[in-house]
Predict the 3D structure of the following.
Amino acid sequence: MRNKLNAEFKIGAVFTGIILALMLISLIYTPYDPYEMSMNIADKLNKPSAAHWLGTDNFGRDILSRLMAGIKHTMLVAVSTVSISLTTGVLLGLIAGYFGKALDEVIMRVMDAVSSFPGILLALVMVTVMHQGRYTIIIPLSILFIPSFTRIARGGLLQYKSADFVNNAKVFGASRLRIIFVHILPNVYPSLLSSLVLGLSNAIMAESGMSYLGLGLQPPIPSWGRILSEAQAQLFIAPWYAVVSGLFIIFTVVGLNFLGEGIRKLLP
Amino acid sequence: MKYFAKKLTITVATVLIVTLLIFLAFNIVPGDPVRMILGTEASQERVDMLREQLGLNASMPSQYINWVGGMLTGNFGTSIKYQKPVLELIGQRVGVTFTLAVMTLILTFAVAIPLGIYSARKRGKFGDKAISTVAMVAISIPGFYLGIFFIWFFGLKLKLFMPGGYVSYRTDISAFLKFLIFPSIVMAIPNIAVVLKYLRTSIIEELKREYVKTAYIKGNTAKGVLYKHVLKNAFVPIISLIGMITANALGGSIIVEQVFGIPGIGGLLIGSITSRDFPMVQGMVVFISLIIIIVNTLADVAVQLVDPRIKIT
């Protein structure tokens, strides 16, 4: 990271920082209870005001509080998804690159098959065949993002397999595992980092899409996608409800995309 | 010719891998699929009947072979919910989705190509930077949000179309196409961002080639070089994107159809998932995958025909 911080990185870091800060705040404080419904008609679908900054929904719940409470669930899904696909993907990539030949061919063909699929279709298949739990969505999404990490790890391994420093390590008697994990893998970290951040943004998009369809995070979790599908029903009376809910998703995804792009450009 | 034989082999292999993965996904279900479909309360008789109907009593490999063999003869299974062949149900709905996908493809290239050329010509200048920033934001907007925004802005505010007022092509073809314009714009926007980025890079790479210098030396203007020599070559890698965009369009239409209330195969798929209609979902997924694999293959073959030097396997 010897280059000067670029604009993309700065914008991304600020956006992501704001969302993370809001998430941390939501853990101890939200303006109102995000789950408490009101029977009073006067509390329903209020416009944004001093009392309710982003207005209230059709059950009289404070929209800002719900969106804030949603961040941690979205992030939990995104982070678990990316962690699972990162570890699995890197391992598969290293195996494919190291053993080569038939095993490489099989692994990479399966990866091609997985990634040539529209992501949503794969996620839908998995959701169909699995018992629906609150966080079931994590598993299909993890599988979705494995191929990108596999390719990076495999590419890195092949690139450095016969590099001088690897040959040196061999001369000094380093074991194969040590060469892979201690000597080669750290060189791949930078490109993994950038795809990790982009993976987070893709995971958030995918999760909100699935939740919008009612097949992602299950109620009562206030997931952004579900909030938006509830908002769509009120579009005629309360357009701001849908607008602000969606802006939260876009803000987060734009932030992460800029951050990922910024990191990629920072790389030597 | 050797190339096409190899390509065909790979395509068949991909189809087999994909069908095998789908088959495994539906058959290594934790728990009994029949119980999942019927619920835990169902009587043993009904369970046995459905088990027989789905052919679950055979061994796994013979189940797979029966299933693939059936598809070769056009038998994609029978929907439990509708009690009709899967292929027939898809047939009733596929026209809408197909139209939507074609409109998305046309729109994507119609907008992305001029923007990509412009970006490459003005590379590093304001226009280029503005386009790339807008493109970055465009790929960050979830399709369903963009759809909701379009319904509100173009439908409710500007009254350019009737939200939820889908008209079948059997009733009125022009009203049908008019209704599909906005959903296809929604689906095209992220694809435009991707294609223009590829095209921009491709043109810039191509401009660095030796033949460009030769063209300049021969007295061509910058425009002449770009339009007569560079573009022809820069377009080649773009052809192979058609496969990816088709996949995006089919995947995207699953959600966008829900947003706009379009009765295409997306709605059918979601409905089948919520009602746990396993054979229907399985058949539809194979159907959609087959289309994507075929389009991908055709795109690769097209690249090969245009530029035989390239070896895409």
User: Anything to note?
Assistant: Residues 76-236 of chain A form a domain with the MetI-like fold fold (CATH 1.10.3720.10). Chain A has a mean pLDDT of 83. Chain A touches chain B at residues 109-110, 112-114, 116-121, 124-131, 201, 205, 208-209, 212-215, 225, 228-229, 231-232, 235-236, 239, 242-243, 246, 249-250, 253-254, 257-258, 261 (CB under 8 Å).
